[in-house]
Amino acid sequence: MGAKGLTKEIIVAEAVAYIESTGQPVVSLHELARRLGIKPPSLYNHIQNTKELQYEIFQYAMDTFVANQKAATENKRKDEAVKAFAEAYHSFATEHKGLYRLIMSIPSEEDDRAKELAIPLLDTVVEILSDYGLTEETIAHWQRVFRAILHGFISEEDLGYFYYYKSIDLKKSRDIAVQCFLDGLHAEIGAAVR
Amino acid sequence: MGAKGLTKEIIVAEAVAYIESTGQPVVSLHELARRLGIKPPSLYNHIQNTKELQYEIFQYAMDTFVANQKAATENKRKDEAVKAFAEAYHSFATEHKGLYRLIMSIPSEEDDRAKELAIPLLDTVVEILSDYGLTEETIAHWQRVFRAILHGFISEEDLGYFYYYKSIDLKKSRDIAVQCFLDGLHAEIGAAVR
DNA sequence: CTCTCAAAACTAACAGCATTAGTTATTATG
DNA sequence: CATAATAACTAATGCTGTTAGTTTTGAGAG
Question: How many domains does chain B have?
Answer without folding.
Answer: 2
